[in-house]
Every structure is written in structure tokens, then in C-alpha cells.
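Let us work through a complete example step by step.
Step 1: write down the sequence.
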Amino acid sequence: MDFGLSSDQVALQDSVNRFLDEQMNLDAVKAYSAGGDADACWQGLAELGVASLLVPEAQGGVGLSALDAALVAECLGAHAAPGPYIGSAVVAPLALLHAREALRERWLGALMDGTVSAGLAFSELAGARADAGVNASNGKLSGRAMFVLDPLAALQVVATREKHLYLVESAAAGLESRVLTTIDRTRACGELRFSETPAELLSDDPQHTAALLDHARVMLVADTVGAAQHMLDAAVAYAKDRKQFNRVIGSFQSVKHLCAEMAAELEPCRAMLWYAAYALGELPAEASLTACHTKAHVAEVGTFVARTATEVHGGVGFTDLLGLHYWFKRIGFNRQALGAPELVREQAARLQTL
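Step 2: predict the structure and record it as C-alpha cells.
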């Protein structure tokens, strides 16, 4: 039995990685973090078919699986690439596929060709704050959504306190968007304030909303795996090049142990990620529990790899010259987004009635 990726999946990652190698190198990451624009990068990814991965072929999409989407997310994490991937390519298309035909016809094509992007206001599903949350009444939203992924996107997929999903246009009356400053400068995160804001109902099924939250969490896990692998590769390359006492530091046993421990901790995470992504489409009864376990474990491993890879680099690891901090902070953001390890473990315990 083959437990590896198929040749098509390997080719998919190779294609996305080649594009990102050209479009999102370290200089481009630095430029974006300083206030640059990533629209050209996202448009290029959309032309590759990234934005339509999960849309069936009958509706103009590529018709691939959640595992394929996770493989793309891993590539994005490895390059610290900005872009509204989780909202535009994963959650919004899946939500529209279960929405009214009029909504699907209006927005699905625009999402697939990259002319419209979607943000994701799901944070209150993971852990509601006392001063945040969104309520719906008569097709209008009121309240506040915090830590929204891509708050300036043309569309917003918003979860309410009742775990219903709504679609809101950025130009809608009564909507105020604000970008927040977070540790991760490679992606936009913000706040949305609603005041009798018109919205379109996408789904009133809490189970469907929970399934979309699982998808978003698994994509964050994939992003972390990619970012951690980048930091590990950078540490190994540096250890093979940097010399002390006329020897490369990679020949020192202590440095070998650090690199080996990172690799030993990270490699099983990839198998966990593949299974969690597979479960989203093929094992729905296991999907939520697997997503919680995987997000919690990979968040811890990612933090360990980020810290240890920086230590291998010594003092230069903290400088902007190498730029390791972009991946370090991205891993830190992923750890907290849509549920920190403590919270998702608690949710996993409830799912198991523990």
C-alpha cells in the first residue's frame, strides 16, 4: 500500500514552488511586510488554478481534494507568501457550493479567476471574546469580529454566534474594517465592525460551519509545516557553511543533535497533516477530532523548530539580513489563529466526551 503522495500531487507542489521561487523570494517578502502589494502574486496563483482547487470540474474548477489544497498551503508557508488563500480558495468556495444558486453564480467565478478575494471572520468560533461576536437579524449583522484573516478583501465570510455563515461585501453599509498589527507581517489580520450591515446567508447549518472551521485549521497546519521545513532547511544549510575553529559547525555533535531533533519532530507532522486533510473529505466523522489533534501537535512542534533553527544560526538568526523572523513569526501566528493548542485540545476532549 502506498502512503506517499501521488505523482500528480508532487507535480502540483513543484509547480506552485517554482512560481513562488520566482515571485515571492525574501526580497519580495520584505517588501510586502513593509507595506507592499501582493495582488500580482495572488493573481498569478489564481492563473495556476490555486483559487479553484476545490471547485468541481462541472462548475469550472480543478476538482481536487482537501489534501491537495493542504499541499498548496504548505508551499505558501514555506515561502512566507501573502495572499488570501484560506478565505478565497478554501472556505469561501466550499461555502458557496452549498449556498443559493444566485450567490454561487455571482461570486464563485470571480473567486476562481482571482478578480475577487475573500476574508475569513471565524475567530469567534474558536474562542469567543467577551467583547466580540456577531449577531444576525433580518439579514443584517451587528457586532464585532476580531482577528479576521484578510480584513480588506472584497468579500468576507462571517460566522455568527449561532454558527451560521453570512457573506458580506466590503462596500456594504455599516461595515468598518481595520487592519491590526500582529507579529506576522506576511499576512493581513484585522477587525470588522458591523452596524446593521446587509449580509447574504450562506448556511444556517452549524455542522457545515464546523466543517469549514476544520478546513481552515488544517490549512493553517499545512502552512506551519511548510514554514517549519523552511527553517529546518535553512539551519542545515547554515550549519554546513558556517565555520568556527576551522571547522563547519555542522560537524559539531551538539549542532548535529539540534538538526536531527528538529527533523525527527517535524517529519511525523507531515503524516499527521496528510491524514487530517484526507479525513476532511473522506472521513467526516473523524475530521474535527483529527483537525484538533493535528493543529495542537503541529503548533508545538513548529514552535520548537522555529526556536531551535534560530539557535543554530546564532546571533545572525535574529537579524533582518537572513529574514528567519518572518517564518518564526508566521509559525507563532498560526499557533494562535483559530485556536491555540490548549483550546483545541479542550475541544478534542469534548468531542471524545472526556
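Step 3: interpret the result. The radius of gyration is 20 Å.
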